[in-house]
Amino acid sequence: MKINITGFIYHKTAEDFSDCFDRYAINPENNRFSIADGVSKSFFPGIWAELLVNTYVNAREEVNFNNAEILLKIQNEWLEKVKEIVNKPNQKYFVRNRFNQGGAAAATFVGLSFFKDNSNKYKWEAYALGDSFLFFIPDNSLDINEDFESKVNYLSSKKNLEFDNYPDFFESRNDNHKGKIQRKEGQMQAGIFYLMTDALAEWFIKETESARGEIHSWKNQHDFEIRIEKLRKSVMNNDDSAILVIRIEDDKKDELIYVDHSISNIDEFILKEKEEQQKNVAQEEVENIKVEDESVNTDTSENGEQNIKTEIQEPLNEKEGVLQKVFKNLTEKF
Length: 334
Description:
Blueprint: E1 2-10, E2 22-27, E3 32-38, H1 45-58, H2 68-86, H3 93-100, E4 106-116, E5 122-129, E6 133-138, H4 148-151, E7 153-155, E8 170-171, E9 182-187, E10 191-196, H5 198-206, H6 208-216, H7 221-232, E11 241-249, E12 257-263, H8 266-333
Parallel strand pairs: 1-12
Antiparallel strand pairs: 1-11, 2-3, 3-4, 4-5, 4-8, 5-9, 6-7, 6-10, 10-11
Helix pairs in contact: 1-2, 5-6
């Protein structure tokens, strides 16, 4: 089977990528893919979401996040990363207070893997917690909007397809997780897997057929950003948005062949933003220096002009006085 993967990610309108807490990861060598949505009001959720997705895709053995030992390992990694940030010399006091009070991150999660069963046939397996979703639509599926639940294979831990602001999640401290992780598996076949965070998932459920066409029109990150901004004006919530699209083509061969994968990298976007911000700060400093220099030059120019006028006027005044004296003496004689 041939596999093609694309992935896009985008922050809320009027925010930056550094404010985005969605994350995804792929590892074709392990046949693993995952996506997570860090809960924005929690404590350093981007770090937590990133640890969840990377741990899942990079593990060689089966990853079951119901296993307390695996979660404890990730929680300790999160704690060490956050400690480094919190203990920086210039860190704000309220960040330190929240950390000392036990502030924790929360994130929803979906993980997908491909594996061979006992009969040497490929199957897929997925785990999900929260309102991030996995959808699988087999090739040649028609009229999905008319019977979504029977024609679309989907997975999340939501009990229904209604969205709210209280999703299930994994927490980065203790075992205060909300909800129970759900699992599903199936035989590999031609079709498309979609892994989405909640804003995209809600839109996809409501607008499935038109949403599929829309998604297939996204050729690059620029397309994705432009179209998401437009969709937010009508049918989509303004929220961080991330999607992995995994296309499966049945070429009648036994092995999985990854033809192409094009995944937008949020770390590169954040780095670019920082460089642009530093460039803008440097430019402002240059402009301020120019303004100061112009002010000094103007003062110098005005003073210089006044000095020149004085140098010229003083001799003229002296000459004028001498002529007046000569004229006075002549008039007195006559």
